[in-house]
Amino acid sequence: MTVKRRGKAMEQAVLDKHLVLDRQLCFAVYATAHAFTRAYKPLLDPLGLTYPQYLVMLVLWEKGEVPVKAIGQSLDLDSGTLSPLLRRLEERGLVSRRSDADDERVVRVELTVAGRDTHAEVVAAAGCLVPAFVDSGRGLGELLEQLAAITANMRAVASDLRTAA
User: Fold this and answer.
1) Structure pTM?
2) What distance in Å separates the CA atoms of residue 2 and residue 91, rounded to the nearest whole number?
3) What are the beta bridge partners of residue 96?
4) Quick one: pLDDT at residue 95?
5) How far apart are CA 75 and CA 56, in angstroms?
6) Which residues does 86 contact at the CB level (< 8 Å), separation at least 6?
7) Cβ atoms of residues 110 and 95 within 8 Å
């Protein structure tokens, strides 16, 4: 075997060692996201919320009345995904949508009284999940910073790959 072939074989061995499911950060994040969804489901079901609807409500509880576009940017959701979520929340009486007075192309979303009242119920229900974060043995702030950095980096890579294609 030549030196060049041996080098290629070693490169392949290194790749094979790292291309194992349990060593993939992408899979760890994926599995964690699914664990979050499964943990929140029994808490949100009695409130009539899905996990994505809960995320929309989080944005509204934090920011108040906002344009649909701002919700989409906060959650990294396109309008095709967000519109049905908002429609169902509106049908339940938790949010209202209206055209912006200055620009009718802009749709603004705000919580109704029922939507604001749901906040206390969600906080009470989700409180049982706090130990899962606290008991992880890591600083939550540090973890959030690392995940935000990874997200930003992956978005940049995805953008570069789309541009190159």
Assistant:
1) 0.80
2) 70
3) 110
4) 97
5) 8
6) 56, 68, 71, 95, 97, 109
7) yes
Q: What is the mean pLDDT of each run of 10 residues along the chain (165 residues)?
A: 60 70 88 92 93 95 95 94 96 94 91 95 85 70 88 90 86
Tokens coding 120: 């206390």
Residue 117 sits in which domain range?
A: 24-134
* Co-location of 68 and 129 in the same domain: yes
Residue that is written with structure tokens 């920011």 in the block:
63
10 Å CB burial of residue 126 (0-12, 13-18, 19+) is middle
- CATH number, domain of 112, equals 1.10.10.10
For 110, the token pair is 């705000």
